[in-house]
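Reply to dn_fold:

You asked what the input looked like. This is it:
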Amino acid sequence: MANPMKSNEPFDLRLPTPGCYLDPEKAGMDSDAVFQGMTAHLFYTLGKLATSASPHDLYMALSYAVKDRLMTRYLASQEVIRKKPQKTVAYLSAEFLIGPQLSNNLLNLGITQEAEDALKRFGIESLSTILEVEEEPGLGNGGLGRLAACYMESLASLQVPAVGYGIRYEFGIFNQLIRDGWQVEVTDKWLKGGWPWELPQPDESCFVGFGGRTESYRDDKGNYRSRWIPSEHAIGVPHDVPVLGYRVNTCDRLRLWRADATESFDFYAFNIGDYYGAVEEKVASETLSKVLYPNDGTDEGRRLRLKQQHFFVSCSLQDMLRSLEKRSIPITEFPKHWTVQLNDTHPAIAVAELMRLLIDQYQIGWEKAWNITTSSVAYTNHTLLPEALEKWDLGLFNDLLPRHLEIIYEINWRFLQQLRLRYPGDDKILQKLSIIDEEGFKSVRMAHLATIGAHHINGVAALHSDLIKRQLMPEFAALWPEKFTNVTNGVTPRRWVALSNPSLSNLLEEEVGPNWITNMELLKKLEEKKDDNNFLEKFEETKLNGKRKLSSFVHSKTGILVDPSSLFDVQVKRIHQYKRQHLNALQIIAQYLRIKNGTNKFEVPRTIIFGGKAAPGYFMAKLMIRFINGIADVVNSDPDMDGLLRVVFLPDYNVKLGEIVYPATDLSEQISTAGKEASGTGNMKFAMNGALTIGTLDGANVELRDLVKKENFFLFGKTESEIMDLKNNNYSPKTFINQCPELKEVLRLIEIGHFSNGDKELFKPLLNSLTGHDPFFVMADFEDYLNKQDVVSECWNNKKAWNKMALLNTARSGYFSSDRSIREYCESIWKVSPMPVEITCDVEELTN
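and this is what came back:
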């Protein structure tokens, strides 16, 4: 096959001339046109006069004016697919952590300065004043959702037709407050002020069923078939969010589904006095899109989560099939027009749902339907943690999705028949690979369903993909070696460098030209500057600009004063034991003790910054947040620490805050237990912005270290194989505690309540975990980690050498662009090509 990423000839699409059909104020790109567009939206859309407009009004007016300029590209891209059918990527994800949209769209359109000039005519001197007003859509929990957002932006920038399918959560990931050191969850009402970026499409709604029963019948040809008769329904209403590529005409879309009731009001119930019952169905249906990730620690929470997954998957597949019908394309050609990527196991029900739609709705035979499904679906695995590989109780599954369970039984029976031929008499391998887990409470293994139903399974870093084949799914990998591949994650340089770090972006453009933003490999030219003192000083100044901005933010949010000239040592990510924020916290106590005892070898001022959210039901993670804040209280109030050590926990870490943190970081903490992190993407963002990494050989750290070279990476810790050896040899954390006097003193200080106001019980569960079974080998890695922090301090004292190392991190980080990741998906998994869109105008056609 020819290289599928080789660009096709641009599709020449005739659209009306902006000057004669579209209002110039809705299409013009100069500051006058932007100003006129804002003025019109203030008056006609928002009902406000410029003289009384608030910053939020101006944000809304500018956003609507920018969206006007997206529409030509958005509609052109949709029209190209209609007129010239092209295989389209359907990216199914429960999360899309897309971040603020205004600044990103201004950048991609190339009108940031024009917008700033227009705002000055309203008395707003800085664009940042308006950008601060924007609410961030909390449509994701962390790395999974942010990766999906980066991939959608890269798909559009590479001019690949794509739709991201997900849920329009009314309340996204919670807002995090810190009270008395504890995380407090507050509802994220991101829609409260209106969100100008979406386009509701109620005429393209879909019906989704739940519960009920199935029945058999004979069709017109005498064949036995099954019919699902659901007991409840919901309507999925699509809301489209344009996703513009960087300086191209291609504008893909997110299609996010909002749940509505099929019948909003029961007049009979109301008339007999059952006022709650009159709206009960509406409340139940709309709950489907109310909140991101309901607590699955309860039966109702698990039930709602499974309903959410089926809801958005069913709507999305119906939408894809309907798109073929609209274009008079046979349903059997589905794989030629759609490639369906499952972002983790959340959308894995797609395998059964696509089979159901093909068999029950379109009356296609099993073999042909299975061939369509397995030719269309691919699966990305994002975790090696067994608890994160979704399994659904068989009773719950049958209660909610009885027809799907029938189909899964049939898929499983046919698959096990193949296994019996391959491994005759081997019941153990049948039990291990079966979709139905027969041990304990019977359940449906969603990762197995996705693996059996997909044509490719990929991990998200070289080590992770290797561990999938060696540890997680070795039998599946032996059965279908051709299915398993790797696509290392990436992040978009538009958001994470150009937008968040303008000082660095401008320096890069001066040195290597403007094309680095779409060809990160050009940054390798910076290696020529590694011994240029003048350039290194400029590079350091861009970092200092970021640190000043973060210092100001820290003071405004926490009241803590930090020194921008200190080493900014940062760990921002979801709070989880395997990510080992508590390992970092323990070394802070060791540094604190060294300063108190006068044994500190390197007097290097450090500001250690944490940020991240713990799942509301994850007790140990929430205790880790309290632990970090307890340490911060002691350290920051001790005069002996002045000028040497500060500890900060940034509340409510999100994309918006990440744009401030990444450019300001000197040292990136990537310290997860080897073999636990699938990839990580924070490590990539930090490296692009010139941070050095202290980390284990875990996830994408392995590739990062290979690329930036070992002398520019602070490596510590047990390897994945050494961790396995410890586990297999009855690992005892006390062995490592007894070998390290500093660690014993750190643990003693916690035990006596030094960081909990004398409360010896508060951190006892954390201590018991660390000194008992220590599931993430914190004690085993502590001494090596502490020693490596000494190497960090020694390096920091030679600022020229540090700046050279930082520069080489940026110069060699191009591999981690999400553009590279998407090219790999397109070439090796999706087999899709770009579709450049050329928009031309035909005045004569309009006037005739």
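The two ends are 45 Å apart (CA to CA).
Hope that clears it up.
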